[in-house]
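User: If only I could read backbone structure tokens as easily as an amino acid sequence. Underneath my words sits a plain record pairing an amino acid chain with its backbone structure tokens. This is the protein in question:
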Amino acid sequence: MNSALWIVAALGVGLLGLALQRALAARRMRALGIAVKALAAGEDPPAPDDTAHAEVFRIARELADARRNDLATAAEREALLRAALEAAPSAIVMFSDLGRISLANAAARELFFENRDPQGENFVAMLGRAPDALRRSLLSDGDELFSVDDIHGERQTYNLAKRRFVIAGEAMVLVLVKNLSRELHRQEADAWKRMIRVFCHELNNSLAPISSLVHTGKLVVEGSPLAPKLERIFATVAERTEHLRVFLDGYAQFSRLPMPRKVDVEWRPFVDRLLAMYPSVRLEGTLPTEAGWFDPAQLEQVAINLLKNAAECGGPADAVTLSVTSLGARGVRITIADRGPGMSPEVMASALVPFYSTKERGSGLGLTLCREIVEAHGGALRLENRDGGGLAVHARLLHRTSPLTAGVGKLTLTRS
């Protein structure tokens, strides 16, 4: 009997010990599970105190640390990408196939959405308010070029690129719109400059020996009975050679125009110098109180060229006007206007092209040089026929703090 009791007691103790071990193991597993979950959530719980699970915990901790590092790296890359997109000069918009906007960078907010964040709105629904050229480009399948007049009436050419992709199973569309106007003008001007440099180089190579031969010819015929007649011939050749040299110098000036050295310029003394050279010109309106930001020598050359053209247009001399108008954040506009015959559409389309001139002795570089100088300042030159007759030439310049894309677009989609 005693033996049986001992056996039962021993068996009970054994079962109790086994139950306690299982309970302890279960508690440790729960603790390990809680610890691993905490690690996965980015928290840092204490390690289990038993060696059996410490190794598992160590591996789980290494995996959690690696995951945290991966998440941090991914967040840094996403932040860098968003910063790059936000600072990109091109307008970038991303929206779903149904039109819901998920991203619009700063350039897109300015160009399309009046500087507000359109996230969550429907881009497709806005296309009813888009200019026809933009709408056709957006609805096309490939990349497109289109042109739209901006708020100043200046023609702006844009490139539109569209790409489709899938994010988390959702079809998305990425649209990128870049203003190419300044780049196209620069490429056009560079091509003309290269041609002019070659043109001037070849002609100057011929003018030098002609001038030398004229001088030699004078020495050869000196004292001859024919000298008086030949002298007139030599003088004419020399005079026309010099005229051609001066003519070429004008073209050479265009081909090597230096970059502007911009400084703060007060408008009153700048305008007074112009009015002193052209006393019949009438100043209209009041001058801006804020200083201009330009190269005074180069802009004075622009103003002189435009005032000279206005004085020679055939209209009344006292009808030529000069005005300087503040455009707020968009900069300043200088306008020189006359009451001559204006320009026909054909002439206006070619007026800014090098070598084109309607004057008998014109070089065809005056307006081209003006545009080159103004655009080198980050501005734009525009010609406009006036109501009642005459021509107005507008030169728009930026302030020191003006953004390069200072609100000139006419692609707003949010204005009813």
